[in-house]
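Issue: ligand-bound run for 3-thiaglutaryl-CoA - logging full I/O for the record.

Environment: standard queue, default settings, no custom constraints.

Inputs:
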Amino acid sequence: MTDRFTAPDYYWIDELLTEEQKLVRNSVREWVKKEISPIIEQAAQKAEFPKHLIKGLAHIGAFGPYLPQQYGGGGLDQVSYGLIMQELERGDSGIRSTASVQSSLVMYPIYTYGSEGQRKKYLPKLATGEWMGCFGLTEPDFGSNPSGMLSNFKDKGDHVILNGSKMWISNAPFADVAVVWAKDEKGEINGLILERGMKGFTTPETHGKWSLRASATGELVFDNVKVPKENIFPNVKGLKGPLGCLNSARYGISWGAVGAAMDCYDSALRYSKERIQFGKPIGAFQLTQKKLAEMITEITKAQLLCWRLGVLKNENRATPAQISLAKRNNVNMALEIAREARQIHGGMGITGEYPIMRHMMNLESVITYEGTHDIHLLITGMDVTGISAFE
Ligand code: TGC
Ligand code: FAD
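Outputs:
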């Protein structure tokens, strides 16, 4: 199917972007049309991560775009990072997932919490895609409440012995490197860098997903894994370590969801003009117009939210609660738009001829991972009342 995507920009938000931001956005948009759109439906149908895209993702600067160039990053600002995520998720949430995990959940913690040796060893190879990474926080019994995690390690002199397991880990089945969060003997959470090939470390794939089918998900299993002490992050302890990475990834998702919504809206708008029923295009009916008008209203609000959050992030002022608000609002918005767009496409909406159903199913994961819809609501509730619902 030819990708006829035209990006909606109802409030001329392009005028708020710098030339560099537009250049970055346009080059990723073109790459998505050329490389993702032609293959993504089949990859999702076959439940296969299109691994051949890794080199291209690295080439367009999707791995570590906002990290310093001296470590292989792109040296770009946060709005550019957001726009990259928007365009990738316009293609598919699973491809955006791979890029957000690599950038915000693997490269970001190595850069922020790692030693200079760790930065130099891992970041350049992660930036080029020579090494791919994954992020292990969630456990079978600890999803929304990661502080209860059971994964733990014991001090053995120059190394530690790690035991436990992680579940639902994006990129795990093919990752070369894993950033893993586990408790030390005092019960404090630490970050460790694991490498594929360490004895006792396995990454079984999770099968049977109806969502994010073009993304590989798996477990991380640690059976007495010997991890050198030099692989532990020296500069962070406690839950604020992994949650700090999530701020960056959730920010990217808030932009990414706008991309998926834009694709659904664009397809529905075009279809509404082409599909004739009762002698008229279905776009002539008031009920279809209501759907399309509400979609563009919500997309425009979400675009402005992202842009403002990006500016705040560039100024180092975006709070975790502001990021939660945007992640929650934008993913929910995208899911509702996907459902309405599916209605506009009638029966055709359930087929792979159109991207709608794939986006809709993907967004069911996106609304759950990186903090569920309700957890983000409670973070906002805690921020405005000053009272935690989690205690
Ligand atoms: P709480 O007591 O509130 O906080 C513990 C410590 O962390 C600090 N903190 C943060 N620091 C940085 N950024 C944030 N967003 C932070 N939120 C809290 C806090 O100040 C405190 O620091 P300190 O110094 O006092 O120790 O923690 P809690 O146990 O009550 O939990 C709070 C809660 C529920 C909000 C949090 O745990 C949470 O966000 N749960 C959701 C879990 C989650 O989002 N998991 C995501 C897993 S990764 C993933 O899904 C990747 S998908 C990737 C893809 O494919 O794209
Ligand atoms: P639970 O925490 O068991 O939640 C179940 C329900 O209970 C939810 O509706 C939740 O909102 C609700 N709930 C829980 N606590 C409360 C409360 N206090 N008040 C009100 N309601 C509550 N994790 C990683 O670490 N790395 C990854 O790369 C990663 N990738 C993922 C990829 C996919 C495709 C998926 C589906 C998940 C991924 N995750 C990853 C895990 C994801 O972050 C968790 O699924 C998510 O945090 C929710 O945890 P849970 O599934 O255990 O649900």
